[in-house]
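Question (not urgent): is this output format expected?
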Amino acid sequence: MAFRGEFEYSLDNRGRIPIPARYRASFGSRATLVQSQDGCVEVYTVEAYEKEAEFLITQRPVRRKARRRRRRFFGHSFDVDLDGQGRILLSPKLREHGDLQGPVIIVGRGECLEIWNPQRWDAEESEMDEEYESDAESTEEGP
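Got this back:
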């Protein structure tokens, strides 16, 4: 299943946030959270996380870059349970990483969901739009 769409939620006072209802069955009772390099929190199904992990493990660890990628990914990954209401608990460390408090935006990225601070998401959207426009202009054919 490809995760898509944009959803607005609010973290409760304990740091819990619901998984969008349409995707809860895909997660079952567990999810894996990863600190994204983009300043958000990635939410993977167990199966999707394992697929990403398998890819990283196929890279030879004799190379420093491969070891660092593994450390970054595995060292910043956390397993969580979904509660009876389909919510996950974001640890203080994850909330701090994503500057997440109060309102948040959940965005589908295909292989996972992302949890964004609304201001960071607005900035990311602006950059995406600029890149898209620039890419579109560079592929236009001349007269």
